[in-house]
Structures are given as C-alpha cells and as structure tokens.
Design brief:
Elements lengths: L16 E6 L3 H12 L4 E4 L8 H4 L20 H5 L10 H14 L6 E2 L4 E7 L4 E6 L4 E9 L21 E4 L14 E5 L3 H13 L2 E6 L5 E3 L7 H18 L21 H14 L15 H18 L3 H7 L12 E3 L2 H4 L5 E5 L5 E4 L3 E4 L2 E4 L2 E4 L8 H4 L2 E3 L6 H4 L18 E3 L12 H21 L4 E4 L1 H16 L29 H13 L5 E4 L1
Parallel strand pairs: 1-2, 1-6, 2-3, 4-17, 6-18, 7-16, 8-9, 8-16, 9-12, 10-11
Antiparallel strand pairs: 4-5, 5-6, 13-14, 14-15, 19-20
Bound molecules: flavin-adenine dinucleotide and NADP nicotinamide-adenine-dinucleotide phosphate.
C-alpha cells in the first residue's frame, strides 16, 4: 500500500471519492476500469494482498474453472484478449490469477486499489447523501456511490466442529489456501466435503498422501470435465470471435455459448434419441449435459432419466460396489446442486490408500487432537482439508455492517432471506449497488458474463446520474417486493428448491432457506435490465 493511501480523513459532508468499490476480483477490477473511464475518482478496498478474488484465495491443488477458459475471460476489450493465450480447455487457478494480474497491469488498476484492507462498515449519511466506509485499519472515507464487488463465493466457512481448536495437526480451507502450497507427502489426510472443491482437490491430494479419507455428507453428481490442451486453431478462432461471442452469450440462459440447449421435451423424444443426446453431452464434458432436453430441470420424471444415466456412467468407473454405493448421488435431482466437473475423481477411490466415510449416515461428532470422529470411530489424520464451501451470495455482504436510511441494517432487513430489486440494489440503501447480488442470475451463469452485464449497467447508470441533476437512486419497496416474488415464482417452476444446496442457503445452519439466484436466465434478465434503464430506471426512485 502506498503511503498517500493511508489514513484518509473523513470530513463530515464531504466526499473523498465519487465511488468506493469493495473487492478486487473480476467484478471490482472491471468496475474500477469503467468508472475511471467516466472520469470519476475511485478507491477500491480489498482484503487480500493482490487482485483476483476467488482465484487469489482458492489456491488448492486441482483448482480450475468449470466454464471453458475461452468463455471464462473478460469480453469487454479486444486488445486485452488478443495478447493473452489460454492453454487448456479449463484453465488452472495459477493461470487465471496470472491473467487477472496481466489485466491489472494493462489497465494500471493497482494505483487505485488499497490491498490488505477489509471494509468493516458502510453507513449512509442521509443529510449529506454520502456513504461513510470504515475499514479494519481504522480509516473512514466518504463516497457518493458504494459498490459491493464482494463476491458470491468469498466468505469461506469452516463448520463449528467441537474440538477443532485442540487438533494437533494442520488444517486448511480450500477457499483460504496457503500461498506457499501444502506438501501432503507421507501424511494421512482427511478431506471434509465433496462439492466442486473437494472433487477437484481429492485426486491431487491423494497423489501425495499416505492415506486419504473423504468425509462425504452428500454424494454429488460429477462428470468428467474432458480437460485437454487447446489447439492453436481454437485459440486463434476465439480471438477473432470473442467480442461477438460475448454479445451472443448475453442472450443465452447461462451466458455460455458452448452450452447448447435442446428445446425438445423428453416425452417428445424416443428413449434412443434421449439416451443418444445424454451420451454425447456426457462424453463431451461440461454443463451442456443439463441441456439435453428442455424439461430436464423442470420435472422429476424428466430429470430422473438424466440422473439415472449419470449414475450408470459414474458407477462404471468405480471398482468396489460398496464404495460405489456410497458415492452414488440419490437424494437430489441432477443439476439442482451445482454439477461437478472432475478429472479422475471417482477413479481415485479405486486406490487402496483412499477411503470414503458416509457422514450423512453417521455425522461428524467432533475433532480430536488426533483426528475426526464419526459414528463413534476416530479416524486418525495428520491434516484436515475443509472443502466445506461458503456462506454463499449473502455472507460477504452481511459480514459488513451496512446501515442505510434511518440506520436500517442490511443484515436485519435480510434476516428472512435477501431482498433486492434485480439483484442490483435494495430499498432503503440509496446509491449502494451489488454486483451479481442475490436476485440476479450470477451463480447460475458464466459469472464473468453476469459481472460484465452488471458492471456495464451500473456504469451507465452512474454516468447518467452524475451528468444529470440526480443525487441518488434507490430501489422502491414495491419494485423489490415484485422482484422477490417473481424470483420465487420462477424458482418454484424448477426443481432447484428441492435440494439442500448452497443456492438455498441450506449449507449454513440457521440460514433461511430461500432460493437466492434469479433462475430466468442471463438473456431474459438482460432484456429486463435494458427495459428498466430505458424507462428512466423504472422501479428505482431518483432523487434530485
Ligand atoms: P470474488 O472473486 O469472490 O472477489 C471478491 C473480492 O472481494 C475478494 O477478493 C474478497 O477478498 C473481497 N472482499 C469481500 N469482502 C470484502 C470486504 N469486506 N472488504 C474488502 N474486500 C472484501 N464461476 C464461473 O462462472 N465459472 C467458473 O469456472 C468458476 N469457478 C469457480 C471456482 C472456485 C474454486 C470458486 C470458489 C468459484 C468459482 N466460480 C466460477 C465463481 C467465481 O466466484 C466467479 O466466477 C468470479 O471469480 C467472482 O468474481 P467477483 O469479483 O464477483 O468475486
Ligand atoms: P460446496 O459445494 O458447498 O461443498 C461443500 C461440501 O462440504 C459439501 O459436500 C457439503 O455437504 C460439505 N459440508 C459442509 N458442511 C459440512 C459438515 N458440517 N459436515 C460434513 N460435510 C459438510 O462448496 P465448494 O465445493 O467449495 O463449491 C462451492 C461452489 O464454488 C461450487 O458449487 C461452484 O459454484 C464453485 N466452485 C467451482 C469450481 C469449479 O469447478 N470451477 C470449484 C470449486 C468451487 P452438503 O452437500 O451435504 O452440504
């Protein structure tokens, strides 16, 4: 951090910056660039020591994207993408982090980012029309606009297991992995959690470990990612088409052009056609499996065919039928928890030094100095990897003391579940924007497409407000109520609410069970955003 960045005074009623952005992942980085283009003064606060967000924190072995690299990159600049070469179909965490640092260099972003600084509070001063932002360094800065680029999957969570403090070995969370890496050679390792992070890390940790025990609460659907090096032709073609591809991605449901949806209902297909479709998509790898027919995510009957297909394919890989029984997902429809893409995950359980313990049948009771107790049995381990996920979508926001008009706290307003208009703003919190907030497609999409969609909308909105005579913009309570009801109604037309997923807040004890993302798709959502902006921000109150 440069000296001139430290200890800014906050003078009552005077703005230190036009905008403060919290977070320097993909969202915060692009937001900074957009606002600078408008000529605004901007400060970004970031807890980490560098840019990257997700890819700065999640350095566990095996971490890579599950949206293909050629689509999981910024699409706003032709120049940036032309000078960058992706190597694999799914890029690794170090490669994505290098890309983000390359973008930060190209756009000279770091001069406006204060690292190693956590925002602890944001309090709205109604009289001045300013937000006062407080940090863990004791700074207070005033800003007109406050933009939360805090991430949907950034609040890593270790469950409250009794005895963890007394554990004599080392423990790690995948979402806060040591920068120097971890050597598991000769170690007995317990991995708790078999979501995407567990499924990506277990094969690589097992390559080093003397013994690995996976503690599985929910068996997940996982399909081979089909990772491979990209050919020079693919890279060259993508350079020519990226900007057009990105425009097209914004019209699709998931923001991914490689994900082609079959519009046919399963009952209109013969069993042979259905199985051919599932088969070709499974073997191609990637999320396209979930688009094999139109009602796959809509009814149990339709979903069941895909789930059965997946179980059959998964079972083929596992040699021991008893282990296969434990690893078979059978308590939720396929796709309603995030589908996992793996590289050699199920095969790992064929090795004699790898076990799985079903902690749904016998939950983890406690951690002891030497290991993990489940079903009355102590599993001795030297290291524990918590692949236990995140307080998703709301955790990073509610851990900041955000107080809006009348001192109302965001955390209290959201006690029964997040309430937003379009996932962008919340009534009572003027000039406060969320990037990929709850109520937007966010985690159901290629996040970079959704991030760019939001950043462009917020950028245009702030540009119009600052050039006009408008002091503040704020979602109306009526628009918010209608939007929340609309999101719930759409979710109820799908199978999503029927699983204990982090989309539903079900992974956090005590968190309300509410489906948080908008399930209507990026394309439909984008049309709504454009309509709202064209109608002078319908559903928002603009105050002069
Ligand atoms: P983040 O990258 O999470 O960045 C938020 C930043 O805000 C963090 O650096 C955090 O430190 C900072 N921050 C939070 N609170 C504060 C505070 N109070 N004060 C200061 N700083 C704060 N999505 C996809 O679409 N495709 C993928 O393949 C994919 N793979 C993923 C793999 C993993 C392991 C994980 C965990 C997520 C993945 N995601 C993927 C989702 C991913 O989070 C997004 O794609 C994207 O990186 C989010 O960018 P962001 O800038 O919105 O948030
Ligand atoms: P996750 O999907 O929430 O998985 C957490 C795992 O920990 C689950 O298996 C969960 O079981 C288990 N768990 C949580 N608390 C537990 C407890 N008290 N006892 C036993 N088990 C417990 O988290 P994640 O794997 O980190 O992934 C989160 C999201 O990040 C993904 O869905 C995806 O969007 C993104 N991500 C993507 C990739 C990628 O492939 N690019 C990689 C990693 C993450 P339950 O299922 O029973 O709750």
């Amino acid at each position: 951090m440069s000296d001139e960045m430290e200890n800014l005074p906050a003078q009552p009623g005077i703005a230190d910056f036009d905008a403060i952005i919290v977070g320097a992942g993909f969202a915060g980085m692009y937001m900074l660039h957009r606002l600078r283009e408008l000529g605004l003064s901007v400060r970004v606060y970031e807890t980490g020591e560098g840019v990257g967000g997700t890819w700065y924190w999640n350095r566990y072995p095996g971490a890579r994207c599950d949206v293909e690299s050629l689509e999981y990159q910024y699409g706003f600049s032709d120049e940036i993408q032309r000078d960058w070469t992706w190597r694999e179909r799914y890029a690794t965490q170090p490669e994505i982090l290098r890309y983000q640092n390359y973008v930060a260099d190209r756009l000279d972003l770091r001069r406006d980012i204060q690292f190693e600084t956590r925002v602890s509070a944001a309090i709205y001063d109604e009289r001045a029309g300013l937000w006062t932002v407080e940090t863990d360094r004791g700074e207070r800065t005033n800003t007109r606009f406050c933009i939360m680029a805090t991430g949907c999957l950034s609040a890593a969570r270790v469950p409250d297991f009794i005895g963890l403090d007394d554990f004599e070995g080392q423990w790690y969370h995948t979402g806060d992995w040591p920068h120097e890496g971890v050597d598991f050679t000769q170690k007995r390792v317990g991995v708790i959690g078999t979501g995407s992070s567990g499924i990506q890390s277990i094969p690589l940790v097992a390559e080093q470990a003397a013994h690995l025990t996976a503690f599985q609460r929910t068996a997940n659907f996982t399909l081979p990612a089909g990772n491979r090096p990209l050919t020079s032709d693919e890279v060259a073609r993508s350079r020519e088409t990226l900007l057009d591809d990105r425009k097209r991605a914004r019209t699709t449901p998931g923001g991914i052009i490689a994900f082609e949806y079959n519009e046919t209902l399963v009952d209109d297909m013969t069993p042979e056609e259905r199985d051919r479709e599932l088969d070709s998509r499974w073997h191609k790898g990637g999320f396209a499996f979930l688009g094999a027919y139109a009602d796959l995510m809509a009814t149990h009957e339709a979903n069941h065919h895909a789930a059965e297909y997946a179980r059959t394919e998964m079972r083929k890989v596992i040699e021991n039928p008893e282990i296969a029984d434990i690893l078979m997902p059978d308590d939720h429809p396929v796709g309603v928890k995030r589908l996992c893409l793996d590289t050699g995950y199920l095969e790992t359980f064929n090795a004699s030094h790898v076990d799985v313990v079903d902690v749904r049948a016998s939950p983890i009771e406690r951690i002891t100095p030497r290991g993990i107790v489940s079903g009355g049995k102590e599993y001795e381990v030297d290291c524990i990897v918590f692949a236990t996920g995140f307080d998703a979508m709301t955790g990073a926001l509610t851990s900041i003391d955000i107080a809006g008009r009348g001192g109302v706290k965001l955390k209290e307003k959201w006690a029964a579940g997040p309430r937003t208009y379009l996932g962008l703003g919340s009534a009572g919190f003027p000039n406060l924007f969320f990037i990929t907030g709850p109520g937007s497609p966010s985690v159901l999409s290629n996040m970079i497409v959704s991030i760019e969609q939001h950043v462009d909308w917020i950028g245009e909105c702030i540009g119009r407000l600052t050039s006009g005579n408008v002091r503040s913009i704020e979602a109306t309570a009526e628009a918010e109520d209608l939007w929340v009801a609309h999101v719930n109604e759409l979710a109820d037309m799908t199978l999503f609410p029927q699983a204990n997923s982090w989309y539903m807040g079900a992974n956090i004890p005590g968190k309300p069970h509410v489906f948080m993302p908008y399930p209507g798709g990026v394309g439909v959502y984008g049309e709504k955003l454009a309509e709202v902006a064209a109608a002078d921000y319908a559903g928002f109150a603009l105050n002069a």
